[in-house]
Design goal:
Two copies of one chain form a homodimer.
Chain A (H helix, E strand, L loop, with lengths): L5 E4 L1 H5 L9 H14 L3 E5 L5 H13 L12 E7 L2 H11 L5 E8 L2 H8 L3 H18 L3 E6 L6 H13 L4 E6 L6 H14 L7 E6 L6 H10 L4 E4 L13 H10 L1 H4 L10 H12 L16 H8 L24 E3 L5 H10 L6 H17 L3 E2 H12 L7 E10 L5 E7 L5 E7 L3 H13 L3 E10 L8 E9 L6 E3 L6 E3 L1 E8 L2 H19 L15
Parallel strand pairs in A: 1-2, 1-8, 2-3, 3-4, 4-5, 5-6, 6-7, 7-8
Antiparallel strand pairs in A: 9-10, 11-12, 12-13, 14-15, 15-18, 16-17
Helix pairs in contact in A: 2-3, 2-12, 3-4, 4-6, 6-7, 7-8, 8-9, 15-16, 17-18
Chain lengths: 541, 541
C-alpha cells in the first residue's frame, strides 16, 4: 500500500452547510483558488442539486480552478455531491463536466436507523439503489465516489456487501463517514480494517474516511482510519461543518507531518499556506476560530513567543513541537508605515499571498494611505483586513456614501445614513434605535426595504490597540424565505439561505454599516432585485 | 479496578494561564462555585507561588468552596500547584490548608530535552528532587499528587523509576502529562499501560492523565489513557489553556456518558450544568467558544432544531447522538416580556442556575425593566448577560456616569465621558479618536491616567436581532508591568498580568466603555491605587 494520503477538502460543501456559512459564488471561487494553492488533491465544490446558485458556483470552480495545474502538476479533482437519485447525479455532472478531472460523489444511508426512518427502504432496496446510481454516475464520469451514510452506526457485514456492489458498479473511491460523530478511534479503526479485509474488490479502489467532531474525536478517528489503511481523508478548513463540524484539514496535515515517524504517511499539502486559507475561510464564512483551536487558533503558537524572550530556555523544542513558520505564521507583525511606497506595499501583499490586479492594487493603496494617516503602525493583520474588504466585496447595488451617528447614555441613539442606489440616486434616512448599530440598520432598512432577520452579528478588532481596524461580520436571512431556499443533501428538506457580510473600518459603526450592506446586497442579487424600490416616507435627495 | 473517573478540573490553573484569561479573585470564586455544582471531584484552584494575588485567590476558594459539601456529599478536593521546591510547596499549603480536603500537586520535568535545557539536572538529581519534594509536601498534607512534566516525551523506563520513588515518598496520585500535545492515542495509551504494569506500588495510587490539544488529539489521548487504566482526567472548561489548550471537560464527560457501553466508565458530573459553566468561563475569561466546538459551541446542537421541524424525519436519533437538554441547553429562548413581574423574573433566574441575594435581585430586576422598555422579547441569553453584568462587576473605583458619542464617515469620531471618581467627584473629558471606541477609551485614559496596552477587544451580540444586548470583552496589560507580575509554573519566568473586563448594553459603545472601565478598575485595585489622580488639563466639574 502506498503511503500517500489524498486530502479531500469539503469546506465548500460540508463546511458551507454550517448554519450561516453560506458563501457567494465569488467567495467560493476565491476559496477554491486558495485550496488549489494549498495543494488539496480533491475539492468537493458543492451540492449542485441544492439550488441553481449552488450548481452555478460548482460550475465556475470546475471551469476555472479545475483546469489550472496546481503544485502537483495536475489540476485538482473537482467533485460534486449527489444523493443516489438520477436528478441529483445529472445536476452534479452538469456542474463538473468541464473540469479536467471531474468526480461524482454519491451517497446513500446504510444504518438501521437511517434506512428505517429516513429512507424507509429495506436493506436489499438500499443495495439496489446504491448499485444502480453508482452505475448511472459512471456513465458520465470515470471517477465515482460512493459513501454509505452513517457508516459509523451501520452493520459492518452490511457495509461489506453494499461496498462490494458499489465497486462492481464502478465506484473508484469508497468513503466511510461517521456522519453523526459517534465512534471512538478504536471502533472506527476497526471498522476500516474490517472493510479492507472483507470487501470484495477493495484492493482496486481508494478507501476514504469522513469524520465529525460531536464528541471531539474527529481528528483521532480520521487518523485511526488512515492507520487502518484508508488513503483519503475528507476534511474542512478550521473544521467547520454542521453541528460540531468536520475533521480539521490543518490538524490532520500537521499531525501527519509533525509525527511522520509515527504515522509514515504523507500528503501533498503546502503547510505554509494553512494560516492564510484559515483566515480567508473564517472571514468569508463569518465563523470565528477560537483562540485555543489547534494549529490555527490565535494562541496556538503563543507560548513560543514568550519562551524565546526567555534567556533561561535556550532550546526551541522545550515547549514547541511545531514551528509557526511551518503553517505560514509570521511573527513580524509591524510591516508598513505612513511613508511606505506603492512598491513596498505591493511586495508585502505578494509575500502575504495576495496578487492584486492593477486596478484593485490602486484602490487598496489608496485605502492603505488613508489608514496610515489615522494609524501609526500598519500591521500584517491590518493589511489583510484592508485587502479582504477591498477585493471580496459583493456586487454593490446600494453603496454607503455617508453615515452620521450620535449615541451614548442619553438613550436616543440616532443614525443618519446616505446611500447611493442602483440608478445613481442618493437616499438619506435617519432612524433611532436601541443602540448605534440598531439605529444604523433601521435607517438602511428604511431605504432598501429588503425584509430580513439578522441571525448573527460579531465585531472583532484585528490588531492590538483600539485604534485598529475593527472587523464586523453579520449574517441574515430573507424574511420572505421562499425564493432563497436550498435543499439539504442529508434531510432533503428545503432550508432558507442565509447571507453573510463583512466590513472593516477603524470606526466600528461604519464597519457595521458596511457589513450589513454587503449582506443585503447579496440578498438583493440572489432575489434578482437590481431595481430601485425607494422607501416610502423616507427623506432622500 | 473501579470504573469511576475522577474529574480534576484545572480551568482555574492551567486554563487561566492562557494568554488573556486572567481572572479576578471574585471571578475565580464564582467559577469555583459553579464547578462544585457541576460536580468535579478535584479543582486545581491556582498556582499560589505565582503572586500574592494568586495565593489569596486559592485561599478564598479553599475556605469557601472547599468546606461546602457538593452533590456527592463531600466538599470538592481543593488542589494547589507547586514546582518541586520548598518555597512553592509552603505557599501551596498556605493557600489550601483550610479546605476540608486539601491536595498539593507538585511536578518536575522528566523528558531529556526538559532535564537538559530547562532544569539542567542529571536524571538522578531529578529523581532525588522529586522524591524529596513529595516527602516535603507529605509533611503538610496526606493527599499529594506528583506529575513528571513532559511525560509524553520522557523515557518510559525512567518514568517507572521516578514514579516508583514518588510513591515511596508518599504520592497518592500520579499524573501523566502530555505537556506539549505530542503523542498519539496509541502511544499515550501504551505509555499509561506501561506505567501501570511496571511501576512498583502503582496499585495503591490513582493514575491521572493530563493532555494538551496541539495536534487536536487531547480528547482521544485522555480517553486512551482512561481505557488503559487511568482513573483521573485533568481537564478544563471549553478546553482553554496555553497554546491549543487542555482537554475539554465537556468532551470527556459527554463521550464517557454517550458511549457508556463502549467505555464502561463513569463520572460524578451533573451534565446539565455544562452549558451554564461553559458560558460563565467564556464570559469571565473573554475566551470565545467557536460555533463548531463540540458540546458547547453555538452550533453543536443546531442541526437538531431543523430536523424537528421536518416531518420526514420522525426519529430523533437520525442525526442526533445527544439530547441538548442533557447539557442544560434549553431551546425555549423566549422567556420574559415587559409585563413579567419580580416573581417570574426570579423563578426564571433560579431555573437558569442564578441564585441572587435580595439586593442583587432588586438591581437586576430594575435593569430588566429598563431593558424590557427597549426590547420586546427578553431571551434567556439577554437575562444571562444582564445578570452577569450585574453580579460580577469588579470593584468600581471609577464609575461611568455619562457618555456622549458622535461618529460616522465624517472622520472625527468624538466621545465625551463623565466618570465618578473614588472620592465622589465627577470628571468630564472629551477626546477624538480613530473610531468611537478609540475616542471613548482616550477620554477615559485622560481622566484615570492608568497607562495600559489594550491586548484584545471583542464585541458580540448575545441574541438574535440587532436590538439585542451587545457584550464587549477587553483585555489589557499595565504599561508599567513591574508591579503586576506573576511567575509561570513551567518556565519560572515573571510574566505581566493582564486584566479583563466585560460590559453589556444595547449600545455597544456604552458596553465598550463599561468593559474598559471594569478592566481599568481591576488594574487599579491590583496596583493598590484607590486614590484619585486627576488628569492634568482635563475638564472636570
Amino acid at each position: 500500500m502506498d503511503n500517500f494520503v489524498r486530502i479531500f477538502d469539503t469546506t465548500l460543501r460540508d463546511g458551507e452547510q454550517s448554519p450561516g456559512a453560506t458563501l457567494t459564488s465569488a467567495e467560493k471561487l476565491e476559496i477554491a483558488r486558495a485550496l488549489a494553492v494549498l495543494g488539496v488533491d480533491v475539492m468537493e465544490a458543492g451540492f449542485p442539486a441544492a439550488s441553481p446558485d449552488d450548481l452555478e458556483g460548482v460550475r465556475r470552480i470546475a471551469l476555472e480552478i479545475g483546469n489550472t495545474p496546481g503544485s502537483s502538476g495536475y489540476p485538482p479533482i473537482i467533485c460534486g455531491l449527489a444523493r443516489a437519485v438520477e436528478d441529483d447525479i445529472d445536476k452534479a455532472w452538469l456542474a463538473i463536466e468541464h473540469a479536467a478531472r471531474p468526480r461524482i460523489h454519491t451517497f446513500l444511508a446504510t444504518s438501521p436507523i437511517h434506512m428505517k426512518y429516513k429512507l424507509r427502504l429495506d436493506p436489499e432496496e438500499v443495495i439496489d439503489q446504491a448499485s444502480l446510481m453508482v452505475a448511472y454516475a459512471k456513465r458520465y464520469c470515470q471517477d465515482v465516489e460512493f459513501s454509505p451514510e452513517d457508516a459509523g452506526r451501520s452493520d459492518p457485514e452490511f457495509l461489506y456487501l453494499i461496498l462490494g456492489e458499489a465497486i462492481k458498479a464502478g465506484a473508484t473511491t469508497l468513503n466511510i463517514p461517521d456522519t453523526v460523530g459517534y465512534t471512538t478511534p478504536e471502533e472506527f479503526g476497526a471498522l476500516i480494517s474490517g472493510i479492507i479485509k472483507n470487501t470484495p474488490g477493495i484492493e482496486d479502489v481508494i478507501v476514504s474516511v469522513h469524520c465529525h467532531d460531536d464528541l471531539g474525536l474527529a481528528t483521532a478517528n480520521t487518523l485511526a482510519g488512515l492507520q487502518a489503511g484508508a488513503r483519503q481523508a475528507e476534511v474542512t478548513i478550521n473544521g467547520i461543518g454542521e453541528r460540531a463540524g468536520n475533521t480539521s484539514l490543518e490538524e490532520i496535515v500537521m499531525a501527519l507531518c509533525t509525527r511522520q515517524p509515527a504515522f509514515r504517511l504523507e500528503t501533498g499539502v503546502d503547510t505554509t499556506q494553512i494560516t492564510r486559507v484559515s483566515r480567508m475561510v473564517s472571514n468569508y464564512t463569518g465563523i470565528i476560530v477560537q483562540p485555543n483551536k489547534a494549529i490555527v487558533g490565535a494562541n496556538a503558537f503563543a507560548h513560543e513567543a514568550g519562551i524565546h524572550q526567555d534567556g533561561m530556555l535556550k532550546h526551541q523544542g522545550t515547549y514547541e513541537i511545531m514551528r509557526p513558520e511551518m503553517v505560514g505564521l509570521h511573527k513580524s507583525s509591524l510591516v508598513l508605515g505612513k511613508h511606505s511606497g506603492r512598491h513596498a506595499f505591493n511586495e508585502r501583499l505578494l509575500e502575504m499571498g495576495y496578487e492584486l490586479k492593477a486596478e484593485d492594487l490602486n484602490q487598496a493603496f489608496t485605502s492603505f494611505k488613508k489608514l496610515a494617516d489615522k494609524k501609526k503602525n500598519i500591521t500584517e493583520a491590518d493589511l489583510a483586513a484592508l485587502v479582504t474588504d477591498q477585493l471580496y466585496r459583493a456586487q454593490d447595488i446600494y453603496a454607503l456614501e455617508g453615515l452620521q451617528v450620535a449615541c451614548g447614555t442619553m438613550g436616543m441613539p440616532t443614525s443618519t445614513v446616505r446611500l447611493t442606489g442602483p440608478d445613481g440616486t442618493q437616499h438619506i434616512h435617519a432612524a433611532v434605535g436601541t443602540g448605534p448599530v440598531d439605529a444604523t440598520y433601521k435607517a438602511i432598512d428604511a431605504i432598501i426595504q429588503a425584509p430580513n432577520r439578522l441571525l448573527e452579528f460579531a465585531i472583532h478588532s484585528v490588531t492590538e490597540g483600539i485604534d485598529a481596524i475593527g472587523e464586523v461580520t453579520v449574517r441574515l436571512e430573507a424574511d420572505n424565505g421562499s425564493v432563497h431556499q436550498r435543499t439539504s443533501p442529508q434531510t432533503g428538506r428545503r432550508q432558507p439561505r442565509t447571507f453573510g457580510g463583512h466590513g472593516a473600518d477603524t470606526d466600528i459603526i461604519v464597519a457595521s454599516a458596511k457589513a450589513y450592506l454587503t449582506a443585503i446586497n447579496k440578498l438583493l442579487v440572489a432575489s434578482g432585485r437590481h431595481g430601485d424600490p425607494v422607501a416610502e416616507g423616507s427623506a432622500h435627495s
